[in-house]
């Protein structure tokens, strides 16, 4: 590289899904009352059908309180006697735990697209007396089951991959929230009860670039260290925390992930981990990552690419960060 490179930070367009009725019922995003996030990572996925809260055949009550006196399907809202939420997605899309918990049960012995009365699933027990069910998954042999019985799972951790096993007419995730009454599990509607951390609900981990102290090429003398910081807006559903693990939010090297950096300074946690989030950052707030850049390599022009990581859980989508990187020019000590 030569000169001062211009960074083009980009943001991909979300996939459009024909669920117009669903989109129209939401007002501006707001924090909700509980600690659940959407059970996947692709922000372009939209609800197809929600929970029918009326047990009577031919009477449908959706999460907004609207009632239909028919048995027709109502895309974006509900269909008759539906006990969960359906999210269409391609086969083998990653499925995420909606909240911290312990795996209560799994089934992975059916074919990824094996039609029949039963299908593959993961069920997770949570500390609030609820359980979550992830159904129609791919088979265990195909990688559809990523956890085992009694495993601890962090909120946002991968539990499996989508499939079309069981009574399934197209690849999707069927997601349920169940209340443990002590004798059985009773279906509950997470949308009606506002169980998401935000309203509407969001995927667990997402961010957008805001600014940094020097958005141009940074110059550092060989053998010296300069201070740098960058800020991202938390556009996901989980609060960013600097201390809790697994799940603490850090800035690490990328492309490839976790590579040893030539620019690691004394304040880095390791050769690839540049910084933790400076302070607790709820959804919609802006968080800062502060770190040094050391001029260790010989004079020349370089670039170091970074990404956010929920440590021990999952990397963020680097494209959502605008493809963030820092262009660096190392100078001779006497320059």
Distance between the first and last residues' Cα: 18 Å
For the record, the CATH architecture of the largest domain stands as Distorted Sandwich
The SSE order reads HEEEEEEEEEEEEEEEEEEEEEEEE
Computed structural class: mainly beta
| Molecular shape | elongated
Beta content comes to 25-35%
| The CATH topology of the largest domain | Glucose Permease (Domain IIA)
Average pLDDT reading: 90
The major β-sheet equals: 7 strands, antiparallel
Determine the number of helices (DSSP H or I, runs of at least 4 residues).
1
Topology of helices and strands:
Elements: H1 20-24, E1 30-31, E2 49-50, E3 60-61, E4 67-68, E5 77-78, E6 85-88, E7 94-96, E8 101-107, E9 120-125, E10 130-137, E11 152-153, E12 158-161, E13 172-180, E14 185-188, E15 198-199, E16 207-212, E17 218-221, E18 225-234, E19 249-253, E20 273-276, E21 286-294, E22 300-310, E23 314-315, E24 325-331
Parallel strand pairs: 2-5, 17-24
Antiparallel strand pairs: 1-15, 3-4, 6-13, 7-12, 8-9, 8-11, 9-10, 10-13, 13-14, 16-18, 18-21, 19-20, 19-22, 22-23, 22-24
What does this 3D model show about the protein?
By secondary structure, the protein is mostly beta strands. It folds into 2 domains: 29-199, Glucose Permease (Domain IIA), CATH 2.70.70.10; 207-331, Immunoglobulins (Immunoglobulin-like). The chain is built from 1 helix and 24 strands. It has one helix at residues 20-24, and strands at residues 30-31, 49-50, 60-61, 67-68, 77-78, 85-88, 94-96, 101-107, 120-125, 130-137, 152-153, 158-161, 172-180, 185-188, 198-199, 207-212, 218-221, 225-234, 249-253, 273-276, 286-294, 300-310, 314-315, 325-331. The strands form 7 sheets. Strands 6, 8, 9, 10, 11, 13 and 14 form a 7-stranded antiparallel sheet that branches. It is elongated, with a radius of gyration of 23 Å. The model is unreliable at 1-29 (pLDDT under 50).
């Amino acid at each position: 590289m030569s000169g001062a490179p211009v960074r083009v930070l980009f943001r991909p367009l979300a996939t459009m899904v024909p669920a117009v009725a669903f989109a129209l019922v939401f007002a501006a995003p707001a924090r909700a009352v509980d600690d659940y996030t959407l059970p996947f990572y692709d922000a372009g996925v939209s609800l197809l059908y929600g929970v029918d809260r009326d047990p009577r055949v031919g009477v449908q009550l959706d999460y907004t309180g609207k009632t239909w006196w028919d048995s027709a399907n109502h895309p974006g809202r509900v269909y008759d006697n539906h006990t969960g939420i359906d999210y269409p997605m391609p086969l083998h899309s990653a499925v995420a735990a909606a909240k911290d918990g312990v795996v209560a049960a799994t089934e992975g012995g059916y074919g990824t697209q094996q039609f029949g009365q039963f299908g593959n699933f993961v069920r997770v027990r949570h500390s609030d007396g609820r359980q979550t069910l992830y159904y129609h998954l791919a088979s265990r042999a195909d990688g559809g089951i990523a956890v085992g019985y009694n495993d601890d799972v962090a909120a946002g951790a991968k539990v499996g991959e989508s499939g079309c096993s069981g009574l399934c007419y197209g690849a999707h995730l069927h997601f349920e929230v169940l209340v443990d009454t002590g004798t059985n599990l009773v279906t509950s509607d997470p949308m009606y009860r506002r169980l998401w951390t935000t309203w509407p609900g969001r995927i667990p981990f997402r961010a957008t670039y805001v600014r940094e102290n020097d958005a141009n090429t940074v110059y550092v003398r060989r053998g010296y260290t300069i201070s740098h910081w960058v800020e991202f807006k938390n556009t996901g559903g989980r609060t960013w925390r600097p201390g809790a693990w697994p799940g603490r939010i850090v800035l690490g090297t990328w492309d490839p992930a976790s590579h040893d950096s030539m620019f690691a300074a004394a304040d880095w946690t390791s050769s690839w981990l540049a910084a933790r989030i400076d302070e607790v950052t709820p959804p919609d707030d802006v968080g800062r990552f502060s770190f040094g850049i050391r001029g260790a390599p010989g004079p020349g022009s370089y670039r170091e690419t970074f990404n956010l990581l929920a440590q021990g859980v999952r990397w963020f989508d680097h494209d959502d960060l605008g493809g963030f990187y820092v262009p660096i020019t190392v100078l001779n000590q006497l320059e």
